[in-house]
UniProtKB/TrEMBL annotation:
One matching Pfam family: Acetyltransf_1
Domain of life of the source: Bacteria
Keywords from the UniProt entry: Acyltransferase, Transferase
InterPro entries: Acyl_CoA_acyltransferase (IPR016181), Bact_Acetyltransf (IPR050832), GNAT_dom (IPR000182)
PROSITE patterns linked: GNAT (PS51186)
Organism of origin: Symbiobacterium thermophilum (strain DSM 24528 / JCM 14929 / IAM 14863 / T)
Name this protein carries in UniProt: Putative acetyltransferase
GO function terms (MF aspect): acyltransferase activity, transferring groups other than amino-acyl groups
Classification of source organism: Bacteria, Bacillati, Bacillota, Clostridia, Eubacteriales
Ranges for domain N-acetyltransferase: 1-178, 189-323
Length: 323
C-alpha cells in the first residue's frame, strides 16, 4: 500500500535512510533525526513537501519525497528509497507515481525536475576521500540505479554536471595565473577583499550576472554584523566580480557561495585569477579541501582544471513534462 507518510512513520523511514547511507550503497550522508525531519518534513511559507511511504503488514518498505514552492511552474522529486529486500517488485515505481499524482494537483506545475535548483540540499560523501563532503547533490547519480530508473519512467537528461575536488595544502598560483594577475594590474584591475568604505557597485554586479541566489547570499553576508571575507575584482573602486563569501565548514571544506565576473571584464583572465585567489584565500584561513560542481559544457571547467581540480563524480539533471 502506498500512502501519505505520517508522523508515526518517521522513526522507520529515518532508520531506512541511515541504514542505506551507512552501507555506502549511496553517496548521501547519514542524518540525525532532527536534520532528517528539517529536510523532508518541516516546511516554510509557500513550501509543500510531499512524502509517501510503501507499507506492507505494518512494515515500511520504501519512502519517496517531492517538493513544490506554490505558484511556481515546477515540482521536484527529491528522493525515492526502497528497502533492498523489497526492490524490483514495483515499489519504487509506485512511490514515484504517487508523488507525480500529488504534484499534478498543483495547476501551475508544468514539469518535474531532478536538479540542483531543488531547495532540499542532500549532502554526500566524495568518493575516495577521508570523509570529505559536498553540501548539495546537483542531480541524479549517473553511476547509481536511480539513473536508469528515472530514464525508463520518462525523465530525460537535460544536462550533465561534473563534481570537482582538490586538496588545498599544496595550492599555489601557477606561473601563468601570476602573469595574468600582473597583466590585469597594468590595466588597473586587481583582486582584493571587499571593503564597503572603498568599493561600490556590488549589488549592481548581480544585475549583470542575473543570479538572485548569489545576490541574496552575498548581500546578506556583507550587511551582517560579522561578515565573512569576500573577494572581488576591482577597477577604480568599482566591483567587477566576486568570489565567496569565504569560510571553513566543519568538515574542512572551503565554502563559497559562487564566483562570477561582470560581462564587461570577461575575456581578460579575471576569472582564472579570481578563482586562484579564492583557493589561496580558503587555504590561508584553514580549509583543507574544496569541492564544486559545474555543467559539462561550461567553459569555466578550464579554469578549475588548470588550478588542479579533478572530476570525481558525474550527475544528470533530469526532467519530465507534466501531461
Amino acid at each position: 500500500m502506498i500512502r501519505t507518510m505520517e508522523a508515526a512513520d518517521l522513526p522507520a523511514v529515518h532508520t531506512l535512510w541511515n541504514r542505506t547511507t551507512l552501507s555506502r550503497e549511496v553517496l548521501y550522508k547519514p542524518l540525525a533525526c532532527e536534520r532528517f525531519q528539517a529536510l523532508f518534513v518541516s516546511a516554510g511559507d509557500h513550501e509543500v513537501k510531499c512524502n509517501v511511504v510503501a507499507e506492507q503488514d505494518g512494515q515500511i518498505l520504501g519512502f519517496g519525497s517531492a517538493y513544490h514552492n506554490t505558484g511556481t511552474d515546477r515540482g521536484y522529486i527529491t528522493f525515492i528509497l526502497v528497502d533492498p529486500a523489497h526492490r524490483r517488485r514495483g515499489v519504487g515505481t509506485a512511490l514515484l507515481r504517487a508523488l507525480e499524482h500529488r504534484l499534478r494537483a498543483f495547476p501551475t506545475i508544468v514539469r518535474i525536475d531532478l536538479n540542483f535548483f531543488n531547495p532540499i540540499n542532500l549532502e554526500w560523501f566524495i568518493p575516495g576521500t577521508p570523509g570529505h563532503d559536498h553540501p548539495n547533490a546537483p542531480g541524479v547519480d549517473v553511476s547509481s540505479p536511480a539513473f536508469p530508473f528515472f530514464t525508463a519512467r520518462g525523465y530525460a537528461e537535460t544536462s550533465r554536471q561534473y563534481s570537482y575536488y582538490r586538496l588545498l595544502a599544496d595550492f599555489q598560483f601557477q606561473p601563468k595565473i601570476a602573469e595574468r594577475a600582473a597583466a590585469l594590474a597594468a590595466q588597473g584591475i586587481s583582486i582584493t577583499y571587499y571593503d564597503p568604505a572603498r568599493h561600490y557597485g556590488l549589488s549592481e554586479l548581480f544585475d549583470d550576472l542575473g543570479n538572485e541566489d548569489w545576490r541574496d547570499k552575498v548581500m546578506t553576508n556583507v550587511n551582517g554584523p560579522r561578515p565573512y571575507p569576500l573577494l572581488i575584482v576591482e577597477q577604480g573602486g568599482r566591483v567587477g566580480g566576486f568570489a565567496g563569501p569565504l569560510y571553513v565548514q566543519e568538515s574542512g571544506r572551503g565554502y563559497f557561495a559562487g564566483i562570477g565576473v561582470h560581462s564587461e571584464l570577461r575575456g581578460v583572465g579575471a576569472g582564472s585569477v579570481l578563482f586562484s585567489a579564492l583557493c589561496q584565500g580558503l587555504r590561508d584561513i584553514g580549509a583543507t579541501f574544496m569541492s564544486l560542481f559545474t555543467g559539462r559544457e561550461n567553459v569555466a571547467r578550464k579554469i578549475y582544471e588548470s588550478a588542479g581540480f579533478q572530476v570525481v563524480h558525474e550527475w544528470a539533471c533530469m526532467r519530465k513534462a507534466m501531461q
